[in-house]
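Please go through the sequence and fold tokens given here and tell me how the chain folds. Record follows.
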Amino acid sequence: MRKAALRSRLAQVQLVLIAAVSFSPACIRAADGDQQIGQLHTCKLANKRQIEDCFLGYRTWGTLNAQQSNAVLFPTWFSGNSANIANFVGADKMIDPTKFFLIAVDALGDGVSSSPSNSSDQHGTHFPAFTIADMVNAEYRLATEVLHLKHLHAVMGISMGGMQIFEWMVRYPAFMDVAIPIVGSPRLTSYDLLLWQAEVEAAQDDPMFQGGNYGERPKLPLVEFIHTMNLSTPAHYARTVSRDGYEQEQQGYYTKGILPFDANDWVAQLGAMIHHDVANEGSMEPAAKKVKAKVLIVVAAQDHMVNPHPALDFAPLVHAQTLVLESDCGHRAVGCESARVFPAVKAFLEGQ
């Protein structure tokens, strides 16, 4: 009788423990679009340094299916964050959350994930330099160690996010079925290097930057001038911004600057792009031979911010489909030509 009573008591305890685990806050799925944090603890970098207390921000939309075959990972663009990616989620947009489990990831250095601005142990100039490859390695760890995924249906990204997708398809070729880099590049051209280095120099030469050891965030108006000048084309800017509008915009550079994006974060992500090259300064052919995913490459023909030619040169090497945007919107063509981009990307994701 005692043994029977003991077994009954143990069974009751097990039921209580199962119920506690099942209804613990950690097991409750976050609502669509809620900010979440994935702890990676230490991130080892390509330069042999490491990020202490390393973490990535992310948001999810939709539900992972029983086969875990519908996950789509979407890292952020330069100076963007995962909240911005909500603009591409919807049945009539790029990613339908009724069909896919979308994971929007804050790339390293965006002020949400581990960054110079939010690190307690490696704050500001003490934060180690990182690369696009380091971003992707951290995102792979988020997918496998935090979300416990063994495979992704797709990886996709815009601009610096597109650069990460080229790195993803070469670095982890068997981990996804589909890759969609949008206005990104597998490596930078001399003009890309000229642009990004000009922004670095403009930031570092600003008296308010103080070698990165500033108290109040600097406005960096010259960086804003350079960046805005290259976001679209001369024709698009002249058509869409009047002379009076330009004067108001110019004053905004001095009063608002790149806020709320931190200047050290800005420079750190610039450095990551400057050193981006999926072939590590070698031939593109060996890098391309690693790719296993089905690829759609979207470029803007008149892009002044990320030159489209390396992506177009890479496309035939990986048997990619291409979508070339021809408007004078330049790097902003994804928004200007969303009526073309959204259905094309959506159809490719869905295998249509």
Notes: Residues 2-22 form the longest helix (21 residues).
